[in-house]
């Protein structure tokens, strides 16, 4: 079954096998704000002026090596008509030294001047080369990052939570096939990959095999299942968190390899129901889910003086105990006492209240 699914969703051309320059339109690495066109024009004009003045000085220093003894104005005139390739021919080098300087210095300067004149074309070529080098460097160095597959409402909320939790934007990669969504992600400083998360080659160029965690947040449940299957096959050790709309599809996500499944429709439905009866509860829930303000649900390591104690008796309001990667609720038998190496899921009092805090 996995083989059939893989064959169905594998493209004819494997993106992961393409050279880096062919991925310029696929992978986008955010850069600083674009420079003003007027700034670029002024900068190029300044460089061109420097070239003309440099050639004029060289000609003036060797003023006896030309068909007539040059004044500085003559040297400036010669430099202008020479580097601009106008070449009237009224002034020409005649000595060996002057001709050598023209060959080794003035001719390259003339070429540089011409390059400035066709700066628009050169700029495009340079930009592509720069992006190719960026992509090459990024693909070699990216490690322990988080991949967000789908940048809709759920994907954007996941990114907002990660950024609020001090995860660097450079460590978040967004995969989506919608150009508008990718532009929004790029504006936030995120690395973006254009393509479908169901494609193994798209996941490969996003560095899925080296990712720390993968968030699966597409628009439909069937897509979420296919994405999770592909992601788990490429990243057996990554933490995969998937969103599903309907609860009957939860087991499909779990069987596909998701470590955690969030049922979006039921969660939203419960909050809507609560809002009609006790709207303040919904307000408090939203506060708990906002890591950058008010109270928040947090996770921390157990301290030495807490080992052996009951979670209910600790200073923090503990909600559960995480042991060996598994959550035990506060009312379960396994969470009766705190053990060495456990982590506590508790209600924090705001950002920075305790060291080693991992908010959710």
Automatic annotation (TrEMBL):
GO biological process, one term: potassium ion transport
Keyword presence, Ubl conjugation: no
Transmembrane domains' residue ranges: 45-61, 105-125
Keywords: Membrane, Transmembrane, Transmembrane helix
Membrane protein topology class: Multi-pass membrane protein
GO annotation, cellular component aspect: plasma membrane
Annotated compartments: Cell membrane
Keyword Ubl conjugation: no
Gene3D superfamilies: 1.10.287.70, NAD(P)-binding Rossmann-like Domain (3.40.50.720)
Sequence ranges assigned to domain RCK N-terminal in this UniProt record: 143-263
Family annotation (InterPro entries): K_chnl_dom (IPR013099), NAD(P)-bd_dom_sf (IPR036291), RCK_N (IPR003148), Trk_Ktr_HKT_K-transport (IPR050721)
Pfam families noted in UniProt: Ion_trans_2 (PF07885), TrkA_N (PF02254)
Protein name, UniProt field: Kef-type K+ transporter NAD-binding component
